[in-house]
Amino acid sequence: MWQVLIKISLLSLCCAAATVPGKPSSSVRHFPNDFLWGVGSSSYQIEGGWNADDKGESIWDYLTHQNPEKIVDQSNGDISADSYHQWRRDVQMVRELHVTSYRFSLSWPRIMPGGYMNQVSTAGIKYYSNLIDELLRYNITPMVTIYHWELPQRLQELGGWTNPEIIPVFQDYARLVLEMYGDRVKIWTTINEPWHVCEHGYGVDYMAPSYNFPGIPAYLCGHNLLKAHAEVVHMYRNEFQQRQGGRMGITLDTSWPEPRDPDSAEDREASERAMQFYVGWFGHPIFSKHGNYPKVMIERIRNLSKQQGFGARSRLPEFTMEEIHRIKGTSDFFGINSYTSNLVNSNGHNNTGKFPIPSFNHDMGVVESQAGVDWPGSGSVWLKVYPKGMYNLLMWIHREYNGPEIIVTENGVSDRGGLEDYARVDYYNLYLSAVLDAMEDGANVSGYIAWSLMDSYEWKAGYTEKFGLYHVDFNSPNRTRTPKISARVFSNICKTNSIDWSYRPTLNDEQLVVAARLPAESMEPNSASTLNWSLSLFLAILLAWHC
Ligand SMILES: *[C@@H]1O[C@H](CO)[C@@H](O)[C@H](O)[C@H]1NC(C)=O
Ligand SMILES: *[C@@H]1O[C@H](CO)[C@@H](O)[C@H](O)[C@H]1NC(C)=O
Ligand SMILES: *[C@@H]1O[C@H](CO)[C@@H](O)[C@H](O)[C@H]1NC(C)=O
Ligand SMILES: *[C@@H]1O[C@H](CO)[C@@H](O)[C@H](O)[C@H]1NC(C)=O
Ligand SMILES: *[C@@H]1O[C@H](CO)[C@@H](O)[C@H](O)[C@H]1NC(C)=O
């Protein structure tokens, strides 16, 4: 069906496309030979074994057990894809994908059940050690995230990231994992998506610990998180890096805020302000020339705090000069996770708007929406396909922070199931093409980690949204994994360092057997049906550029 659409589109567009300047014709574009290809996962989303051996309780165990009604399908990660037992198969899949790197995270309470160093789990230490060895055996570089949202519940009872006590405790945990694994792990990230940790965890009722306390604790969380991150990086640099020879950074996240009306100065300003609030909150202190929070954040939150009766003390805490210097420069690369874009316009200081006062969103003063866009959808309401947003985001980081080395540490798309995920194939082709565009325009992107290796526990969406290159049969005792069409296409991309737009394999025998067994409901909405005219047209234009 879609091939027909493409052909029609191509015919009708060929003349117009031929006049597009600046793109090399006929030659296939290649990623650099040393480009880091990877695939990602996170501990709570895939491991299961929630109380295996002496593992402690995490804030996600606690949330999903106490408040299952907060999860779309009332599910939890107790077993999930059971990678606690199936990790050898996971490594086999990573090999099949021809990637050079596997990005996974460590579960803090699996390693330190109570969060503190007085209790260390031998079984937990061994689990990751085995995984790392298995990866290295096949020349796959482990890329390890120290914190991907699994705070030990005991530490949450002390206020979690809002309590400065977290700084030395996180450092103790990090020291242990560096001592245990640093000889073998050469790429580290301290914390995954600080914005999600702080705003979604503390500001609204979205991620554990679900504080739903807008406008204050998220900024305390961010403050402590930045300091904890910086202390760990300094520790790594002072005590480990020279001997172990690895690199350590952080991974931030954002959707790209596209100005609703590109001709409106207000909308363009709203886009810039959104970037400073989402990325600059953590990016400016670490990556900018002068450090500290972005000026616009400091000023707006100070002004609004005053208006709101908080007196002279801003809800956004202040760093001392010493702290500003301590945090600045503490990342060896810029890790960025991004999936989609929003249209944005200004909400100014309009206090009758739709956000609580005070709140992060009200402080930011930006209205975001995907209403009225003709971007193709996905299996998640928030995720629409707009590859240009990835280009814009990479170029913004490149300009804003003086050309840092960038690793796209997460990018991918969801659907509702099935193995014939041609919409995912299109997504990867389109987004990787946008990454190449940004690289050609100067962005120093050194790697790309696809999200995700396999279907997993998608936080509050439970098991209803699938991001995997591999399908997981959550009803089979050993959580059987099967490559989707996208796994074969992504593998081909990694192997050849290039995008082959014409490569769209059909189900092979192994896949046909599994596909036949899938319950009908897990196939819908049919991924192929998400491909509609707008995407076909877009594809056709891109194809025409390269033909
Ligand atoms: C904050 O208030 C000061 C003084 O009223 C004003 O000059 C400045 O423009 C305001 N800044 C922002 C970002 O609103
Ligand atoms: C403020 O927001 C409300 C609700 O969205 C809207 O009705 C009103 O017109 C806005 N006022 C201004 C001055 O923008
Ligand atoms: C297909 O494109 C239309 C706009 O052309 C958009 O509104 C719609 O959401 C898309 N459909 C799907 C399933 O993505
Ligand atoms: C890109 O980053 C790498 C790693 O830091 C560095 O070696 C290289 O010189 C950078 N390239 C450019 C063009 O800045
Ligand atoms: C997993 O389960 C399937 C179906 O029950 C079985 O065919 C397969 O041998 C099992 N694999 C392992 C490694 O136990």
From TrEMBL:
GO terms for biological process: carbohydrate catabolic process. GO terms for molecular function: beta-glucosidase activity; galactosylceramidase activity. InterPro entries: GH, GH_1_N_CS, Glyco_hydro_1, Glyco_hydro_1_AS. It catalyses: a beta-D-galactosyl-(1<->1')-N-acylsphing-4-enine + H2O = an N-acylsphing-4-enine + D-galactose; a beta-D-xylosyl-(1<->1')-N-acylsphing-4-enine + cholesterol = cholesteryl 3-beta-D-xyloside + an N-acylsphing-4-enine; Hydrolysis of terminal, non-reducing beta-D-glucosyl residues with release of beta-D-glucose; beta-D-glucosyl-(1<->1)-sphing-4-enine + H2O = sphing-4-enine + D-glucose. Pfam families: Glyco_hydro_1 (PF00232). Residues 1-16 form the signal peptide. Keywords: Glycosidase, Hydrolase, Signal. The active site is at 410 (nucleophile). It is an enzyme of class 3 (hydrolase). Its EC number is 3.2.1.21, 3.2.1.46. Residues 249-269 are annotated as: Disordered. The keyword Kinase does not apply. Residues 258-269 have a biased composition (Basic and acidic residues). Belongs to the glycosyl hydrolase 1 family. Klotho subfamily. This is Cytosolic beta-glucosidase.
